[in-house]
């Protein structure tokens, strides 16, 4: 095992989430769009934060291979929560930009990053993900 962490939440989407080491604790709240106060964080926001950081690391790891400066990359991950016939489902939209870089090269890098990013691997086949160089 390379790394493991855990978090505990009491009160679900209207509670408080705390990392095991106490280094981060967040008030949770339903977003206004779902009838909540919006005065806290929600799981979709936390997923977007984690995914964008993880994907950014994959871009850094592969940048040189593609002749691009991965450290200049900006990765934006948008997470959408939709309702279907059964329950709720997530979808993800990833946008990667590298100022001054050829868009086709950035797209090739972003596509390959999707093959190694642990979040991408975890969601593959279960969560629709779109990837675009912008």
UniProtKB/TrEMBL annotation:
Record InterPro entries: KH_dom-like_a/b, OHR, OsmC/Ohr_fam, OsmC/Ohrsf
Annotated Pfam families: OsmC
UniProt superkingdom: Bacteria
NCBIfam families linked to this entry: organ_hyd_perox (TIGR03561)
Family stated for the protein in its record: Belongs to the OsmC/Ohr family.
UniProt protein name: Ohr subfamily peroxiredoxin
Species, as recorded: Labrys wisconsinensis
């Amino acid at each position: 095992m390379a790394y493991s962490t855990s978090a505990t939440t009491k009160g679900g989407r209207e509670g408080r989430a705390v990392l095991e080491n106490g280094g981060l604790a967040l008030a949770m709240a339903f977003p206004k769009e779902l009838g909540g106060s919006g005065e806290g964080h929600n799981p979709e926001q936390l997923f977007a934060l984690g995914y964008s950081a993880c994907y950014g690391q994959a871009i850094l790891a592969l940048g040189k291979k593609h002749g691009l400066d991965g450290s200049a990359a900006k990765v934006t991950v948008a997470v959408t929560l939709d309702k279907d016939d059964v329950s709720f489902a997530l979808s993800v939209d990833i946008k990667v930009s590298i100022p001054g870089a050829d868009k086709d090269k950035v797209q090739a890098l972003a596509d390959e990053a999707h093959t190694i990013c642990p979040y991408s691997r975890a969601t593959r086949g279960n969560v629709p993900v779109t990837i675009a160089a912008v």
